[in-house]
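User: structure tokens for this one?
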Amino acid sequence: MGRKRTDFGAEGDALIRQMTSTGCSAEAVTAALMVRGVKVHRATVDRRMRELRGAQHFDARAAEAAGIVGPRSSASSAPDSDDLPALDGELPEVSGVAKITHWLALAEKKAKDAEGPTCPACGRSADSEELVKMIRLAAVLLDLKRKATPMPTPDPNENPDMRALAAVVAKRFHDLVEKVPA
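Assistant:
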């Protein structure tokens, strides 16, 4: 015979779902529920959070029936041409800066989506790991863009004529040495 499931009500379940998605700890969720007047133990909240995250001994069908987790989608999304490169390996060869600029815009959009609302209890953003991943990817892409950008052609008018400058420095040095008493 299993343990009787603790009922937190719709509001309590929604709070646990929101705080779990933002990465809050079980202690923070327990404290937030206690503030709302729900008597609960940290272990109970921890169990419910494991259910939401899909731990090893979690029955997904029972969670779908209870309304804790949405139904699983059987259709996997096919990768499209706008997929960002992964950081785990070599970046693909890029022929121009335009593709890197496009990836940077996608990484920025995904980072803004990952920021989302912050948790009321602990202040963490909705998807911290995704946000950090997108920031790291943006840094790598900016470096790749810097390397892929062609070097500007040097303007000879901007650089001083070193031979003429060498003659001026040599004349000043000789004048200085002649003025020194022996």
